[in-house]
């Protein structure tokens, strides 16, 4: 018996004479079932579909079974040669597409993972374990390596563009309606909130947000391992920004590394022509600043004095001291000095006041009478000095009554009428300058006198003036002693109108003297780095440890006003450490002082003589 499909019908041929009729019935039933399930038309085969439109057209599910792990659909190459691809299950929960080298696409239906050339993905999308390009997002050319993509190479996660002219941009929106927030160019420039200009490494735009450098404690800052020049942090203990200059951490001010910076303050009630900062002094965490031409009510030039206290690294105005009896032209604050809990203030009147601090209150404890207009004052621990142009009066605090200061002695080493123009006291030593005195036969060359305390007696120990050879020796009217400072066995004397050979008049100089035993010796002259008219180096001098300060306010051109900071190196040689300047055209350094690591610089001419003061810190 045979059968065939003829004229769209299945035809049965009985070719065996011995076939039984029951067998024919069974075969007819089988053919009927087959016909109802499979249809073939124009070489298309349908399963559960009587009108197949494709070579194999199935309705419903198809199950491929195997006892192994490779059931599926096998595909040969176009030349029908060897096996090319196989699609099927990898294990009971996964399936994939492979070739003769193994699975290249792997799908984990249980965990929702997919592997690309990765047979055991552990993440939603896993790539092969080899280095190289991983994702290509766009290729502007047919070159396979010239594209926007993502890759991994030698432990580096890479994002790349076709050329260095392309950028990485972060933002919001869609690709055709994009709002940019951050850009990294192919040349390494970064723009935040803006497209970086061509000269910028980092360009930050916007007006409502700030830049915050790393915030660290002083201990953390000094513990940074191998900091490189240019490193910058904000020291939370000091409330200051520091940068590393390659050798040490340097406190950075509001302008640039050469600016005086750190913290600039003005009077809380400042007015034009008050001349805030005319006189300044500092002692530890307290500073005193005068405004001798301050207007009070309708009274002009009454004056006023401001006390500042350093709290958590910031200088805060603690109080304003006013004269007991305000009168016009009093000039309260004509001269000021401070030491610990005591301050001394002079004015144009005959009265000089000594204040004592209790808590945050400053009260007058002693009033001294001195009628001279050439007065100057100084104070340290238990002694206060008052000069009047011709002598020095020494006041001592009474041991049994710490609020009482009594005149101990009057000293007159000889004077030209300007004795005390420069005045400084440090422990058992004080120095007083007489800039108009004749020295070495040179009129107006100036002298300075050092006194030491022996028991209860102040004794003249040395007369200081320039004893160098003629070409750098004393000059007529150089006014050595206009400013002075003493600390330990070193004395500093300023000569602000000295004319160095061949240089403009008033260039100025600073003289250094050393003490060995009881003998004072001239050591050297230090001049400024700028040969400009009226630089006036030495207008004010100060000393703290290995550091020496000398101001050069330059009265002819405030734009070139400086404060010089010198330091003795390990070999004992004095070298210029820093040049401090103001970025305005107002000048700096007419008066200044230093105590420990803190310094103060006054600029009473700033802002139409409203005045300002800058506090700084020496960073070792």
Quick rundown:
This protein has 620 residues and is mainly beta. Strands 6-7-8-9-10-11 form a 6-stranded mixed beta sheet, with no helix packed on it. A 4-stranded mixed beta sheet has the order 15-16-17-18, with no helix packed on it. A 4-stranded mixed beta sheet has the order 19-20-21-22.
Description:
With 620 residues, this protein is mostly beta strands. The chain is 4% helix and 45% strand. Among the domains are: 2-127, no CATH class; 133-204, no CATH class; 216-252, no CATH class; 282-412, Methylamine Dehydrogenase, Chain H (7 Propeller). The chain starts with a strand and ends with a strand. Mean pLDDT is 82; it is low at 1-19, 30-36 and 254-261.
Topology, element by element:
Layout: E1 2-6, E2 9-13, H1 21-37, E3 38-41, E4 44-47, E5 56-58, E6 72-76, E7 83-89, E8 94-99, E9 102-108, E10 113-116, E11 125-127, E12 132-138, E13 148-153, E14 156-160, E15 167-173, E16 178-185, E17 190-192, E18 202-204, E19 215-216, H2 218-222, E20 232-235, E21 240-244, E22 249-252, E23 263-265, E24 280-283, E25 286-291, E26 304-311, E27 314-321, E28 335-339, E29 342-346, E30 351-358, E31 361-369, E32 376-380, E33 383-387, E34 392-397, E35 405-411, E36 422-426, E37 429-434, E38 447-454, E39 457-464, E40 483-487, E41 490-495, E42 509-516, E43 519-526, E44 541-544, E45 547-552, E46 562-568, E47 574-581, E48 591-595, E49 598-603, H3 606-609, E50 612-617
Parallel strand pairs: 4-5, 10-11, 17-18, 19-20
Antiparallel strand pairs: 1-2, 3-4, 6-7, 7-8, 8-9, 9-10, 12-13, 13-14, 15-16, 16-17, 20-21, 21-22, 23-50, 24-25, 25-26, 26-27, 28-29, 29-30, 30-31, 32-33, 33-34, 34-35, 36-37, 37-38, 38-39, 40-41, 41-42, 42-43, 44-45, 45-46, 46-47, 48-49, 49-50
């Amino acid at each position: 018996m045979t059968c065939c499909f003829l004229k769209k019908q299945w035809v049965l041929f009985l070719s065996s004479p011995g076939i039984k009729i029951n067998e024919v019935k069974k075969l007819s039933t089988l053919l009927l079932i087959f016909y109802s399930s499979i249809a073939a038309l124009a070489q298309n085969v349908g399963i559960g579909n009587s009108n197949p439109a494709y070579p194999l057209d199935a309705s419903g599910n198809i199950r491929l079974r195997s006892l192994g792990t490779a059931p599926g659909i096998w595909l040969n190459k176009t030349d029908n040669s060897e096996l090319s691809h196989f699609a099927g299950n990898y294990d009971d929960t996964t399936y994939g597409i492979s070739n003769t080298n193994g699975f290249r696409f792997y799908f984990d239906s249980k965990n929702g993972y997919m592997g690309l050339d990765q047979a055991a993905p552990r993440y939603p999308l896993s790539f092969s374990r080899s280095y190289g390009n991983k994702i290509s997002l766009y290729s502007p050319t047919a070159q396979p390596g010239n594209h926007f993509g993502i890759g991994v190479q030698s432990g580096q996660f890479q994002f790349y563009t076709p050329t260095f002219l392309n950028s990485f941009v972060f933002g919001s929106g869609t690709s055709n309606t994009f709002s940019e927030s951050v850009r990294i160019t192919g040349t390494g420039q970064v723009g935040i909130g803006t497209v970086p200009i061509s000269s910028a490494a980092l360009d930050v735009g916007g007006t409502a947000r700030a830049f915050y450098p790393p915030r660290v404690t002083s201990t953390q800052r000094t513990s940074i391992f191998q900091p490189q020049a240019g490193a910058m942090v904000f020291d939370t203990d000091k409330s200051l920004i520091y940068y590393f200059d390659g050798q040490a951490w340097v406190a950075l001010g509001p302008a640039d590394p050469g600016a005086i910076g750190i913290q600039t303050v003005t009077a809380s009630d400042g007015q034009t022509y008050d001349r805030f900062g005319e006189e300044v002094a500092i002692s530890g965490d307290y500073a005193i600043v005068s405004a001798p031409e301050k207007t009070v009510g309708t009274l002009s030039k009454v004056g006023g004095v401001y006390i500042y206290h350093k709290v958590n690294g910031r200088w805060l105005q603690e109080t304003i001291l006013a004269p007991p009896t305000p009168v016009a032209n009093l000039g309260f604050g004509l001269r000021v000095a401070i030491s610990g809990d005591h301050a001394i203030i002079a004015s144009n009147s005959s009265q000089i006041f000594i204040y004592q601090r209790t808590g945050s209150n400053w009260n007058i404890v002693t009033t001294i009478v001195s009628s001279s207009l050439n007065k100057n004052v100084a104070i340290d621990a238990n002694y206060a000095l008052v000069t009047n142009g011709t002598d020095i009066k020494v006041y001592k605090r009474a041991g049994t009554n710490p609020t009482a200061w009594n005149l101990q002695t009057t000293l007159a080493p000889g004077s030209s009428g300007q004795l005390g123009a420069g005045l400084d006291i440090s422990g058992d030593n004080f120095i007083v300058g007489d800039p108009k005195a004749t020295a070495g036969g040179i009129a107006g060359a100036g002298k300075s006198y050092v006194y030491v305390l022996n028991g209860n007696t102040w004794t003249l120990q040395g007369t200081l003036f320039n004893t160098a050879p003629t070409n750098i020796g004393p000059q007529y009217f150089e006014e050595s002693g206009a400013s002075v400072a003493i600390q330990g066995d070193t004395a500093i004397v300023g000569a602000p109108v000295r004319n160095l050979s061949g240089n403009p008049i008033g260039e100025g100089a600073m003289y250094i003297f050393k003490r060995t035993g009881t003998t004072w010796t001239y050591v050297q002259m230090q001049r400024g780095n700028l040969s400009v008219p009226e630089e006036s180096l030495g207008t004010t001098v100060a000393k703290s440890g290995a550091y020496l300060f000398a101001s050069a306010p330059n009265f002819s051109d405030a734009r070139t006003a400086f404060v010089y900071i010198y330091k003795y190196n390990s070999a004992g040689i004095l070298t210029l450490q820093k040049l401090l300047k103001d970025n305005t055209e107002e000048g700096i350094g007419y008066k200044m002082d230093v105590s420990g690591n803190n310094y103060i610089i006054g600029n009473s001419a700033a802002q139409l003589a409203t005045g300002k003061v800058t506090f700084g810190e020496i960073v070792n």
